[in-house]
Design goal:
Elements: H1 2-12, H2 16-25, H3 44-47, E1 59-68, E2 75-81, E3 92-93, E4 96-98, H4 106-118, E5 125-130, E6 134-136, E7 140-149, E8 162-169, H5 170-173, E9 180-184, E10 193-200, E11 203-205, H6 207-221
Parallel strand pairs: 1-7
Antiparallel strand pairs: 1-2, 1-4, 2-3, 2-8, 5-7, 6-7, 9-10, 10-11
Helix pairs in contact: 2-6
Length: 222
């Protein structure tokens, strides 16, 4: 019932999703146990069918999911990756990357990467919580760090990694009317699974980025 009521609640209260995210992630911690891993866009239960295909050794990484507290309603900050990158060139993503030896934890890595990639000052960021680790096909175990970002920041993108930055209203991203199904064959011998793309004008949010958004949406919609 709550999920059907959400669109009406958002219309009446532009900060509905902001409060729901804070409520649902309150007290969450970064959990790295294999039993908690998910594939992007799949529920924990659906991810279990692929568990035996996940490598034992994965590279720890983290991304920052930056929710900007715009007035009257929040937005989500994205990057479009540079076309010359080796992995995920040109794709829409969140700031992030592998954990370096200097990073104490996923928060430190996410904040460092956001500063390096787009110049986002950590002073504007408040970490709210974490989603389960997402397993990426390129061999990374990614911890999504969900954060609220206070307006007033200035971005300076590193052109070697980021082509541009842009924001999308959170209520647009969480509106099922904007979801587009995509079938993906994760493993040749298993049935294809239905994932979700989120087109935004001429852009298309898909893959791991869309998967993380969908898992945050599922957590918050009920």
């Amino acid at each position: 019932m709550a999920s059907r009521a959400a669109p009406a609640a958002v219309a009446e209260d532009p900060q509905f999703w902001q409060r729901r995210i804070a409520e649902r992630l309150r007290g969450s911690t970064a959990r790295h146990d294999r039993a908690d891993w998910v594939l992007p866009g799949l529920t924990a239960q659906a991810s279990r069918a692929f568990e035996r295909f996940i490598p034992e050794k994965l590279v720890p990484a983290a991304v920052l999911m930056p929710i900007v507290l715009r007035d009257p309603a929040p937005t989500v900050l994205f990057t479009q990756r540079a076309t010359a990158l080796k992995h995920h060139a040109g794709q829409i993503s969140f700031p992030g990357g592998r954990l370096e030896s200097s990073d104490a934890n996923p928060i430190a890595a996410a904040l460092r990467e956001a500063r390096e990639e787009v110049g986002l000052d950590p002073a504007f960021i408040t970490v709210i919580g974490f989603l389960p680790d997402h397993i990426i096909g390129t061999g990374f175990r990614v911890t999504p760090v969900v954060a609220f970002v206070r307006p007033g920041f200035t971005l300076v993108a590193d052109a070697r990694e980021v082509e541009e930055t842009f924001e999308v209203p959170l209520d647009y991203l969480f509106d099922p009317a904007n979801f587009r199904p995509r079938m993906r064959q994760y493993v040749p011998d298993l049935p294809a699974v239905q994932l979700t793309d989120i087109p935004v004008g001429e852009r298309n949010i898909w893959g791991a980025t869309a998967g993380m958004l969908m898992n945050l949406y599922r957590l918050c919609k009920e």
